[in-house]
Amino acid sequence: MEGRSNLKPVQASPSGPVLADGADVLGDQLRTRLSDLSLFVSPHAILLERRFNRLLAGRFDPSQRKALCEITPGAAMMRLAPGRDPADFFEQVAYSGRRLAKLNIPPGEIVKALREYDTLLDPVLKELLPERHREFQWVRDQLQFCVLLTLNNAFYQVREEESRAFFELFRAELEASNLDDMLDRLLKILVRTFRASAGRLILVPTEPDGTPEFGKEWRKKASRPLFLEGDGRGNRVLDAELAREGFASYWSIPHFANGHLAAVVQFGFPTRYRWLPRELQLLDAAGERFLLATEKTQLIEDLKARETQVRKLSEHLLRVEEEERRRISRELHDEAGQAMLCIRLQLEMIEKTLPGELKKVRESLAATREVTEGVIVEIRRIISDLSPAVLEQLGLASALKQLARRFRAYSPAKIRLHVTGGMLSGAARLSRETEIVTYRLVQECLNNVAKHSSASTVNIRLRSTDSLVVLSVEDDGVGFDPGVAAKKLNSFGLAGIRERVGLLGGRLIVTSRPGKGTNISIELPISR
What we know:
Blueprint: E1 2-4, H1 28-41, H2 45-56, H3 62-69, H4 73-80, H5 86-102, H6 107-128, H7 133-175, H8 179-193, E2 198-203, H9 216-222, E3 226-229, H10 240-244, E4 249-257, E5 260-269, H11 277-353, H12 359-386, H13 389-394, H14 396-410, E6 414-420, H15 432-453, E7 457-464, E8 468-475, H16 482-487, H17 493-503, E9 507-512, E10 518-525
Parallel strand pairs: 6-7
Antiparallel strand pairs: 1-2, 2-5, 3-4, 4-5, 7-8, 8-10, 9-10
Helix pairs in contact: 1-4, 1-7, 2-4, 2-6, 4-5, 5-7, 6-7, 7-8, 7-11, 8-11, 11-12, 14-15, 15-17
């Protein structure tokens, strides 16, 4: 995974520290007094810095001491002595303030250190300017106020950037369409946050897979944070393309999950830039965030893949079911049906040729023939239920009319069928799959009504639009609780309806209450 930065350098305000309304804190009088003070103090600034360093030793490391020395009154005097604008010094304070924030020095410790510097500066000023000491005390107080204001802004900027980075990581996790998109977004956010020129994100299998890319040597190189520059880079820049860019310095940051190396993030910088403690902490926290997001996204994608597999399997099973229905229908028609017709004809012929005195035999043959005719009628009904020929020959509307006629034959409920829409009959028909699914849905609804509802009236409404088939089956029966019915393990009527609707990407609404009847509303997208 690759990312690049389009950042432009952030420019400091040219006029020094500003208040919330944008007004310049430094007035003309203060600028003049600062310039006067710098003439006296700047020759002693280096000695004061040495004493200040000794005072800080043991409490702060060299990089922290260096940043603290950059914001002292002595540093200000050295900057102002050549006649420079005070804005140059406050730009330096803003930069050092951001470093101090990233070096994890609490603001209270910074204020304490600046007061300790004042204890070193006081004797020098009293000796050099005894008669003007009070006058320059006001200048020092104003200078310290401006420094603290600038430091406060710098700390706020660092914390705001950190908060923005985490917000963007969270938003990327929510908005990403898939795992690759999410990782690409996360890497670009990290590259921008740390002002790198380019970056790579390498996901590592949780368990060693034996391939050269993720072998033991590779893992050993990548398993600890590395700052790389010059000849020290070697082959530790894991991505060949990133290495060919020839950046001045690189970061290589590992991230672990369950004790195993899970990912490595590497950044390239155009200058020598070593990370600061706060930046490393931010990277660790961001790494934990994106590893959790990666795991969640992978689980979601796996679930979607499994759902797709289940849906395809269900579609296949329904196709197989319809094929099996047609096969059984053909065999019943061609084999059992024809055989029963032959039996009935033979019985009729035997009955006609028997002498009149064999009355009992004739009556027995007649009874057998009636039973055979009943079996033939039942076989024809089964054939029609399995694979209605009228559906393929005349269309959905005719097939539903036939289904309604058969329903009247075995149910006392009064059925009304209302069909509208040009796609339901005639030449411009629905796709074969949509017609079969719609027919089976009506068939299943009527079976449920006959078995469970004790309804006296059933209304079926079917209409088509340019994009939808809308089906409504309503009865005035005993009704039920849909929530309870959905939890029944051995209830397959509604589950079968829901499955068929879902396979076509449709919508199912079941409205029912005990004693209030049932209304099943279905919308199916038209597939031509």
